[in-house]
Structure formats: structure tokens, C-alpha cells
Design goal:
- The protein starts with 7 loop residues before the first strand and ends with a strand.
- The radius of gyration is 19 Å and the shape is globular.
- A hairpin with a 5-residue loop joins strand 7 (113-119) and strand 8.
- The protein contains 5 helices and 18 strands.
- Strands 1, 2, 3, 4, 13, 14, 15, 16, 17 and 18 form a 10-stranded mixed sheet that branches.
- It has helices at residues 18-28, 91-100, 168-178, 229-241, 297-303, and strands at 8-15, 32-39, 42-51, 60-65, 78-87, 106-110, 113-119, 125-131, 158-164, 181-186, 189-193, 201-205, 218-226, 245-246, 250-251, 255-261, 267-275, 335-336.
- It has 340 residues and is of the alpha+beta class.
- Residues 319-340 have a biased composition (Acidic residues).
Amino acid sequence: MLTDTPGLHHVTTITGLPQPTLDFYLETLGLTLCCRTVNFEDILAHHLYFGDPSATPGAILTCFPYGDVDPGRLGAPQPTAVAFTIPSGSISSWRQRLADRGHEVAEETRFDERVLSITDPDGTPIELVERSSAIAGSSPIEARKDGPVPSSVGIRGLHGVTLTPVDPYATAATLETLGLERVGQEGDRIRYRAEGTHARVIDILDRSMPYGREGPGTIHHVAVRAASVDELYEWHDLFRERGYETSRVKDRHFYHSLYVRGPGGVLFELATESPGFDVADSSPDALYLPPRFEADRELIESQLPPVTIPGGDGRTEDESGTDETDEAVADETGDQVDRS
């Protein structure tokens, strides 16, 4: 019997050169580098995983750095924004931090939540959403403690993602099939929510947009958590019976996945929470390769663009609370295991 998804597993974006990506997500947003590996569909390209110190499913943003290529174009049918959770009382500090670093920052209130909007170095829309549940001790996700952003105001996982499909009704049906419930609407934004403890929000925009083009500055897909590999096969059969485009169940080394694209056009991934990133028994700063790629390490390392993993910016961590006067804040391949 299929289990409703408890929420997001990760969101994957496409970026340009890897160094600005590393600098932005580690230094500006203060995320943790969970793993630096390669794109399993293109082993001569990086795949970067950012998240919380425990690499918790629901806290992870992954990036495919495509290099110095033409930029992508946001549009339908794509995920068109990814949102992170920040603690209540931290938004002023974040606004100042981002402005000091040259970002154009917009602020709005949405579903009674305060939201800051910026873009990453390639133009991908990034949002920070204040949540009382993100205060230390209330959130299941811990902020990074040794980074440039004081942990008291640090990001605590994903909040959600915004989708712009070509058929909002069809995408809504996909979300309801996965177990999310419609909980509200503001203007052309319809909100769905999962029943888990974190990373539960998916918004659908009922808005006409030109077709997007995959490339740096766009979001490739959104992944939701699945209970087990066995359930992935059940999801595979269910979606296939309903006429969705489905992949085989794939071994992504850190988890198993199924990719699904319905009539709404947005690419979804269903991913298990295990085995997790503990299988990467090396420092996140080092290039991790699954055993099957180790024989080609010398070739891979010679072809990847060199990167420097940024460290802290010298600030002392401030655990004094979340007062607003805080001075700083801040289709891979894998082993297919299809049984069909």
C-alpha cells in the first residue's frame, strides 16, 4: 500500500560555473556542503549537494554546474522558485546581509509568512521564509554551526518550491496523488502541503508564462520523499497506468529514485531517504566518487574545473538569539534496478 509523501526530499537546479555556486550557497547562505561528486549521467561534470550538517532529506539543494554555456530561461513547465526556512525574527538581519553582498532583495507577505526574494549568481529565484517552527529547538533541521552565518538565524532546510506548470489542474492532481492537500489560495498562487514535519509546501502558480529553456538559472526538478524502494515500484506502476512518463527505478547511490512527468509538464522525482550520505566516507570538501567510478578518478579529476571550497568569513558565531538587531546574519545514470 502506497504511503503519502511527508514532503520534499531535494530540489535540483542548473548553474553555470561551479565556483560562484559554491561561494553563494556556502558563504552567502551559509549552507553545508554535504557532498561534492559528479553527475552520474556525465561523470566529467560536478554534482554539488548543499544542505544541513546531517544532510537531512528535506534540507537539500543540489546543483548541476553546466559551465560557461548559454543561460536558461525561466518559464513553463518548470519549478520557478525554491524557498528555504529561516527562524522568526531573522528576516531583517538576512535582508541587510544580502543587501551588503550586492543582492537586490524583495520582501512580501504570503500566506501570513514574511518572504525575502533574491536570485543566485545564475539568476535562479531563491526565497527565505520566516517560520516560528525554525527557531532552534523547534525545528527538526539544525543550522550549520561553524559557518559564516550565526546558527541562531541560519537556514533550517527547505520550506518549499513554486511550480509553474502548463496545466495547473493536472499538476494539482499529481500532488494530490502523492498525498499533498490543498490548503489555500492567494491570487494565482495555490498552496499544497504535505503532512510531514518539514519541507512540506508546494505552491502552484496558475499563471501564463512563456516556455522555459533548460540551462543555468533554472530549476531542473523537484524531489519528494518516498517510503521505500518497494514503494517506488508501486508508484512506477500507478503513474504508468495513468499515462505519465516514468523512468525506471534508479540507484542514485545516496538514495533510490523514480522520475515522473505528467501532463502538467513539471518533472518530479520520488526519492527514498536511505541509505543517505553516510555512504560517502570522505570529507565533503574532497571529490567523492562511488566505487564504480573510482577506476576513472584520475581522468575525472583532470577534466573537472578546479574549485576552492570556501571556509568561514572569520565571524564569530553568535548564539545570542534571533533579535532583529543581530549584526550579521548572514537523467544521471546510476545503476538501474528496474524490475520490470
